[in-house]
Amino acid sequence: MKRTDHISWDEYFMGIALLSAQRSKDPNTQVGACIVSNENKILSVGYNGMPTGCLDDAMPWGREGARLETKYPFVCHAELNAILNSNFSLKGSKLYVTLFPCNECAKAIIQCGISEIVYLSDKYADSDETKASKMMFDMVGIKYSLYIPAERAITIEL
Question: Does the pTM of the predicted model rise above 0.85?
C-alpha cells in the first residue's frame, strides 16, 4: 500500500522556494522563488542576491542611507532571477514565491507569460509597489493566491 502522508504539490514547491531563499546573502530579507509547469515540473528557481560577478562582500546590503549605499539599486529579486535562470518557455507556468512580487518583478512575470502566482507573505501589501503589481496582474488576468501553510514541520538535515 502506498504512503498517504506525502506532501502536496503546493507544499513541495513552496518548500523549494523556502529552501532557495536560504541561499540569499541578504541579512534582512531572504526571498525564494520556484517556477513550475502545468505538469508539475520545476522549470527554474531563484533567490534574491547580487548580479552574477558582483562580489557579495563588496556590495552594500544596508537598507538605510544614501541610495547607492543601500542594496536597493543592486539586488536582483528572486522572481527575476528565476525567470532569468530558466531555459524553458514560462508561458502558462505557475510561480511559487515567499514574498508577493514588487512592481518591477510583476512586469517581468507578465512579459514571460507566467499565469499564476502562489505567495507566502504579502507584508508590503500597503506599498504602492505591491498595489501596482496587483493592478497589473488583475488587468492581464494573472491569478494570485496566498499559500496557506500546512500544520506540519519538515526537517531536513544536511
Answer: yes
